[in-house]
Amino acid sequence: MKQGNILYIDLTSQTSRVERNEEIFDRFMGGTSVGTELLFQHGRPKDDPYVPEAPIIFAIGPFNSLYPVATKTIALFKSPLSGELGESHAGGRFSMALRDAEIDVMVITGKSERPTYLSIDNHKVTFKSAATFWGASATACERILRASEAVSGRKLSIVRIGPAGERLSPMACAVVDSSRHFGRTGLGGVMGSKNLKAIVVSGSGGWEFEKSEMKAYNEVYDEFYDRVVRSKDMTKYHDVGTAINIKPLSMLNGLPTRNFSQGSFESADEVSGETFAKNHLAQHIGCVHCQCGCIHMATLREEFQTWHYATSKVSYDYELIYALGTSLSVASPHDILRMILEVERQGWDVISMGITLAWASEAYVSGVITDKETGGLALNFGNTESYLEMMRRCAAGEEFFRDLELGCAKCSEKWGGTDFAIHYGGVEPAGYMTGENFAISSLLGVRHSHLDDLGYSIDQKILTKPMPVEEQVMQQVKEAQWRMIINSMAICLFARAIYDVDIVIRGLNALSLDWTKEKIDELGVNMLRRKNEWRKLCGFDPDKFAVPRKMLNVRSANGRMNEESLRYRMKLYREYAGI
């Protein structure tokens, strides 16, 4: 069986249908590339992201559930945070559930009259009321649905939103299974605008192999598996995880601290990955069909009454420690975990909320925001109780605080402090102060993401091995094009070092999919341009983009960024990428 099943769901009419389209997969492989083409077909880039007609597209690739670490599902939509391309990737069980249900892509449009969730069993879609748990936290929603939707002999995948998505927060995420997320660019708000609380998927099918395919498939699978379990890169993700980056980045002056005021944190040892692992790590878990086990779960024990305690499992990683730790000058792992749990319950993106809280702190200490706006609540850096109270007031819809879930770009436009609102195209950045290559990734990357290319990695390499600016930018563009391919296969980017073009081609051919190096290279180049075409239709204008003013006045790992140098890099990037 080849790829080709597209499940269309109309929430307005409460109808669904499956269409077979092998041609689009033959041309665009799957994942992000097929999803982008469907976004062109069904999306209207000038529309508000919250109109009923705006599509949500979930797409998997040819490797999902068939090869190791091919664990991602790609979500595409118009972002309410940036106003342009919304794209987010999530692990967990979702991609395998779609494969089991023999669904390669799911396109959701319309808006339900009432709170609704979708129960999908193979190709059968049932529209069910979510009225009784509308308003429930993302964590409670999973417990409710996992009990009520249990199917004997099958495992479910559950995607759901928290109260933030119901309030149409542009930084709301969608939570997947126990601890994974479509975290960035506001999918949760788009689901909320459709009165869509959750999606439950299970199936009994899968990929059917011909006998002639099995030998080649097994050979490629074994090589993939061997690379995963023996790779030093993958060992890093399993042992301490991405949180191992805290201390090295602080030493390099590349760890954002106190709203990007400096690149080192004096308490880096106290919130390091090593400290989290030693004192708080409870278990490692992995996405389905991943041998790495990079998900680090901590135990959070809180006293809710004298001698009575609640214990929660909370996932953590580098980005979460940066966003709710170093960026806020919070030096207690226990307090960071408390804030992560609060964000998880509401269903916000941790990075966006953390950096918006950091903006609010700087606005307060600089006098842009006063006690009048905060009702007397001091928004000082390092005050965990204050941050938790800010989030509670935000969720309650109190004046000023309710604006925090709009993101720091919109907050600063309304309340002031635009010079120190750290965002790129409306999207709060990941935790790197490495230099100009990272800034270019954030400005011009298709998702305004550090994962769109390897800019932050180049910044670190040139500390010891300088290279011409032109070569730096060319490497970024080449990697951006290659990641179009990785994301079309829906592979976890943690495994990018073990997936080279040769083994990718052999893996595709073993599935009787006709791909060559030339065809793959062409897809990578064209898809990067295609995504930027969609962004421009949405209103993206790279000529008007600039780094936050504050970032030109602070030291990164590579010193202060230069505005003229950044303009030159942007010019090169656009020339090389054809955008």
Structure description:
- This protein is α+β, with helices and mostly antiparallel strands.
- It folds into three domains: 5-202, Aldehyde Ferredoxin Oxidoreductase,  A, domain 1 (4-Layer Sandwich); 242-420, Orthogonal Bundle (Aldehyde Ferredoxin Oxidoreductase Protein, subunit A, domain 2); 436-577, Orthogonal Bundle (Aldehyde Ferredoxin Oxidoreductase Protein, subunit A, domain 3).
- The mean pLDDT is 95.
- The strands form four sheets. Strands 2-1-6-3-4-5 form a six-stranded mixed beta sheet. The protein has a six-stranded mixed beta sheet with strand order 8-7-12-9-10-11.
- The protein is 41% helix and 16% strand.
- 55% of the residues are buried.
- The chain has helices spanning 22-28, 31-42, 94-100, 138-148, 163-166, 187-193, 211-230, 232-239, 246-252, 273-279, 318-324, 333-346, 350-365, 371-374, 384-396, 408-415, 436-444, 455-461, 469-489, 501-510, 517-538, 563-577, and strands spanning 5-10, 15-20, 56-59, 73-78, 85-90, 105-109, 116-121, 124-129, 157-160, 174-176, 180-182, 196-202, 281-285, 295-305, 308-316, 555-556, 559-560.
Q: How many discrete domains? A: 3
| Share in helix | 40-55%
Low-confidence stretches: none
The CATH topology of the largest domain comes to Aldehyde Ferredoxin Oxidoreductase,  A, domain 1
Assess the beta-strand content as a share of residues. 15-25%
